[in-house]
Amino acid sequence: MSELPAAQKFDLRKVPVPDVLARVEASLQLASNASGSDGLIRKRRSIGFRSDHNTWVRIECRGLERLDSQGWGLEAAATLRGVPIPTWHAGVSWLDAERGVMWRADETELIEAPPIARSANASALPASWWDAFDTALDNLAKHSTNRIATPDLEPISQARVESVIQKVLPECTSLVLSEWTTAHADFNWANMTAPELRIIDWEDWGRAPRGLDAANLWAGSLAVPEVAAQVYRRRAADLESSTGRIMRLFKCAEVLSWADEREPLFEPTRTAAAELLALGVGNQGARP
């Protein structure tokens, strides 16, 4: 069991950690103001709650194998400009030697607007929301950072992209990621709000191949064609760049590695992958 990642050893949806909660409240000088069964938003590796300061507190459990020189993403994201993120107020982190993990708690602005959650809910978003969306991604891409994006907790790299694509599409032998920008790296409808756009969950942001965020949102929306088409229209410059096309294929390959015919994303993803292959993406003969 000791070899398992922290999120599997200590699935916070199931494992109570009252000592951690008490330490966070004492350190940040606040108290949980949550309601419901125990009032906590529990996920595999994080716990969130509304505080009596009318702020939001997020507690993360991170295995020692994930400690690096990049620090904690939410605190580092406070340097971003022109991107609608929650204001960061304070944080505390410590080593839990008994459990063999690190804990981190961040207090941020409380975002009242609900997450969009699913691509089906994005169909009615107004043009003003999409304009804010474009501005946010443009400003984020321009930000200079030494952080490396870690989608799904794993650093993004040329080797990772090649491995994922070639596992599903072994005919792809030319996958050069020539353009890198700054990305959120967990860019999906659950991490954006409406009617006012706010982007949340910045733990994984950093440098990534151009188009990663747009490709992730586009691929996750393929079961709702009009939404996928809107994402494509808005971020066409990224998605049609040579690196952006590879990012689209990368996201298609991720879906095809686990989905089957019963999954609504399967058929449109398979079609999208075939269209990209027909354009020569992943092969030396790619059309401009």
- Which CATH top level class of the largest domain fits? Mainly Alpha
Radius of gyration: 20 Å
How many separate domains? 2
CATH architecture descriptor text of the largest domain: Orthogonal Bundle
- Beta-strand percentage range: 5-15%
Overall geometric form:
globular
Main sheet record: 5 strands, antiparallel
Keywords summarizing the entry:
Transferase(Phosphotransferase), domain 1; 2 domains; five-stranded antiparallel β-sheet; 10 helices; 288 residues; Phosphorylase Kinase, domain 1; two-stranded antiparallel ribbon; alpha+beta
Structure characterization notes:
The chain is an alpha+beta fold and 288 residues long. The longest helix is centred in the middle third of the chain and has 16 residues, at 127-142. It has 2 domains: 6-109, Phosphorylase Kinase, domain 1 (2-Layer Sandwich), CATH 3.30.200; 119-278, Transferase(Phosphotransferase), domain 1 (Orthogonal Bundle). It has helices at 6-9, 18-28, 73-76, 127-142, 158-168, 212-220, 225-234, 236-239, 242-256, 266-278, and strands at residues 41-42, 46-50, 55-63, 88-96, 101-109, 180-183, 206-209. A 5-stranded antiparallel β-sheet has the order 1-2-3-5-4, covered by helices on one side. The protein has 10 helices and 7 strands. The radius of gyration is 20 Å and the shape is globular.
